Amino acid sequence: MGKTFDIGLERLTGAGVSGPVSGPDVSEGAGMEASATVGASIEEKNRTLKTAGCGTHGLEGETFYLETFGCQMNDHDSEKVAGVLLARGYRQVETPEAAKVILYNTCSIREKAAQKVFSRLGELRPVEEAERKWIEDNGAGLKRADREIGVPGVEDAEQWAGRVKTRRLQSAGKIIGVLGCVAQQEGEGIFERAPWVSLVCGSASYRKLPQLIAELEAGNRRVTGLDTDTDETFETEITRRDNPFRAYLTIIEGCDKACSYCVVPFTRGPERSRASASILEEVRQLAEAGYSEVQLLGQTVNSYADPTPISKGRKMRFSELLAAVAEVRGIRRVRFTTSHPRDFGKDIVEAIEAHPTICDHVHLPVQSGSTAVLRAMARTYTREEYLEKIALMKAAKRPISITTDMIVGFPGETERDFEETLSLLDEVQYDSVFAFKYSPRPNTPSLKMADAIPEEEKGRRLAILMDRQREIQRVRNERTVGETFEVLVDGKSRRENQWSGHTSSNRVVNFASPEQELLGDYVQVKVVSAMPNSLVGEMVGRVEFGNQ
Ligand code: 5AD
Ligand code: SF4
Question: CB atoms < 10 A from the CB of 189, how many?
Answer without folding.
Answer: 10
